[in-house]
Task: structure prediction
Amino acid sequence: MPHLAPDSQDPHLPLIMKKGSFRFLSCLSLLCFLAAVMPEPLAAEVFNSEGLPGTLILVGGGAVPQEVSILLRESVQDQPLVILAEASSKPTATADATKQWLTEHGISRVTVVDFSLPMPDRLRQTVAAIQKAQAVWICGGQQSLLANTFAGTDVENALQNLLQRGGVIAGTSAGAAIMSKVMISSGMNEPEISIGWNLLPGVIVDQHFTERNRLGRSQLAVSKHPQLFGLGIDEGTAAIVTGRRMQIAGTGRVSVLLAETAYRAADVMTLTKGEVADFTQLRRAAEQRSIRIDPGRPTDGLPQVAHGSLVIVGGGSMPKDVGARFIELAGGAKSRIIVLPTAGPRTETTDVVPGFLRSKTTESVRVLLQRGTEADSEEFRSALETATGVWFGGGRQWNFVDAYEGTDAIRLFHDVLRRGGVIGGSSAGATIQGEFLVRGHPLGNTVMMAEGYERGFSFLPGVAIDQHFAQRGRQPDLLPVIRRHPEMLGIGIDEGTALVVTGSKAEIIGQNSVHFLPAKQLASLPADAELPGTAEDAARLYISIKSGESIDLKSF
Result:
């Protein structure tokens, strides 16, 4: 895939941040649900979407970028740094040279193990040093020597514990390659795979990437392990991972490799100095590919609600009739409503009840803040098992994905509908209700199709829902989504407006309109024709239904 220009506006592509500006590269990320009676999570592993508690610095060999030495100095301050030089055939000389380099860059508290000690004593000394350190530097050489030296010892656990307490682990060349569990230990055309340390899960690291022409071997490694993505790092270049943020430093490139699948070609994307990618998104993109299910093909049936109802609000103000309809569908005075504000960041999420639910016209309103494995708790489960209505708040829809993907929450939400209850939501809480998720990229909401974060909760199957529609001039944005995924029905909902769905009947209430885009509306345009780029031109392709009117979704 070509490296795209900074001003690319292709809405298929994910957002990469560079020096405060935005850059599009290629479709990345993941939420995947397998359809049986209802969507079920496909990924076997529920990984920590928040990423690393500490920092990993992976240098591709050659000259170490200045940003790395500065970051190390700022991170260590007056705390110890440990050198691991076992990748070298001459570890003592390598450790001495590395210590001198660190000292020249203002890092003076450096610990080096005594390589003359018997191995059991060396290992104990290494573990004890790491336990007291704030950072570790792993020297280059042969990653197989590192793996063999420390395999099955407590050194790996000590490194993991260092990360957990917010420490820094940096490595160059072999010291970078050892950080992935699936490790390329040698080989040119055919990679030899062995086991690394799994400090950076979900990835296969390769170093000296461009300089030693290692693209081919990394592609082969990823093709054999499609649930992982490749990370090829040039010399003089570093990938710095903190939390879920991966930033590039240095003079070369970092290449991201994704395996071929039945519905996507293999991808190679490049990042350069100053660019930022979302590491969790990359992991989900790889896992989505390994499952080999096209997120753009409906798997949950026609756009209808077999049981219960949906209230899908386009954001903005909340008209009284919309709030009243939600409460009515939830059971009125006997309604037991659950509020999910988890579309916002965890640090900003509060248990504040939305204004339209603060009256005493319901039996109970409860806010649930649990995310991830917390959503499998008895408290979360029991609250939803008795709920007659669920309200998804606004924010960013990818946060809902991170909060509930891989847990039992999705089934519990669908159970509310099966009991005849109602699910509602506004803005992000509207988009998450569709089967195809638009604007799901963690780095920005202008990307319409972000690979991996392309599966919603499918309360309304076979649709892609956008919000703040006419008010933000978003009419052009759904066009490429439906052109690419013609089996989906595009729905754009205006602010202050709700689409109320029971069975296949869709009623519009509130202040404005709802706009429908079936693929047949694009039939008049040649397949290779440029899509309308203005809201006015794009609006002509939609079927718009005003408040007070209704339509049968089967008509599309």
